[in-house]
Amino acid sequence: MYEVEITVNFSAAHRLRDYNGKCEQLHGHNYKIQIAARSSSPGKGGMVIDFGDLKKAANQVLDTLDHRYLNDIKPFDEIEPSAENIAAHIFREVSQNLGDQGAMLHSVSVWESDTSKATYLKD
Ligand SMILES: [Zn+2]
User: CATH top-level class for 2-121?
Assistant: First the structure.
């Protein structure tokens, strides 16, 4: 099995609504996002997926989140903007943006800080 992974970043504010603690208050994160794709054999050009294609698909999603208040943006106007939910949202959107190649998407990790990350893995 081969795996390729890109790292991208965005900054945003959020607050967790149903939470008793610090993250209940409005605050921001410089999120680090790792997006991985897997394939049992490299395809065209000896690549699982072109890093550029993966970055483009990712940035289309991150552009909608960067420097925003996440609680105002779908789907986080209705669900908690937790690292777990952000990872699942990015996974779904990037997968869609990749079209036929979306099936290769394997995982999206969201780092809220240097020591805390949540990962959404393909079923
Ligand atoms: Zn937070």
Answer: alpha beta
Q: Which sequence positions are flagged as catalytic?
A: 23, 67, 112
- pLDDT tens for each residue of 83-120: 999 999 999 999 999 999 999 999 999 999 999 999 99
106 annotated as belonging to a binding site for a ligand: no
- The pLDDT tens digits for 57-76 are 999 999 999 999 999 999 99
Cα of 14 vs centre of ligand 1, distance in Å, is 6
Write the CA distances from 56 to 59, 120, 123, integer angstroms: 5, 20, 24
Using the mean position of ligand 1's atoms as its centre, give its distance from the Cα of residue 116 in Å.
10
- Least Cα distance to 27 among 60, 62, 69, 64 occurs for 69
